[in-house]
Design brief:
10-stranded mixed β-sheet, 26% strand, 12 strands
Amino acid sequence: MAIKDRTFAAPHIKAASADEGDICASAVILEARGLLTTQRSGAQTLDNERGLFGNDLQRRLQAAALAAAGEYRDTPGAVFAARMAGTDDPKKFGWDRIEGILRNEGAITFRMIPINRCAQIEQRLAEIGCTISWWDVFDGPSDEIRAACERIVNRPREDFVLIEPSASDDAAFFECAQAFMAECGVAPYPTQVLSGGLGPVAFAVLLNPEDGSVVATAFSYFPYNRHSTHRKSAWAGLVAVRDDLRGRGLGAFVNALVLKKAVEEMGAERIQEFARTSNVASCKMIEHCGLSLRTDVRSGIAQPVEAESFTR
């Protein structure tokens, strides 16, 4: 996705008009190579309506998640999943609440569910006309992830530019990144989360220096609250690579940048990523970055039976 007719600013980069799809690439290369977003909590939060992205259902779910962010950060069993409501302990979160969210909002994510409880959850959802699409879980400890990612990022990509958007001042840039994710089949997070306005994050965006187009993204943050056994684990995802550039290691590179920052600057003790084992390329990329398949837990998204899937 080319960044056209937009103006954005990044640290150490003068804001530039991109009317012709040109974002002053030479200046970006000189001043921004090697930068990665690592925003901290306390950053200014963007207006809700400005930061949402996607179709009507996705925007409605994002708005509901943002409105409940404070509650989810302090409720046992709740997960701040950004795109929608979430739970990592349905019993503590409460099935009445889960059913209400599905009825009123249309989706909820279940995180890190023990495999022996999945069938029970499926049955409970079926009773109210809902189903769940499960994802396989990959995770790993910080030392193994750091070692694996260092091997990847120590081979710099001189053919692309890594840029750091400057939080709330760069709404146009975030919108371009969100649009790119959506084009790649990845449902993006709202700007308020991507920018670090609601907690520490690591966000990497690679650009083509020739035309300023976004070619790859990855993101990490802390979704679990103080009550969770996963509270020191970060989640990473939103890995998207332009179709014609796949197979060149960009996914592993941008993912490794984010994971390394999550460990070194955000203080994550473990990191989780979700994929389906049928997606061989994604699984290999995740494992290359130091994470391993967990066979004891699964994560997924519950929706009404006829609802459209969030990601491909």
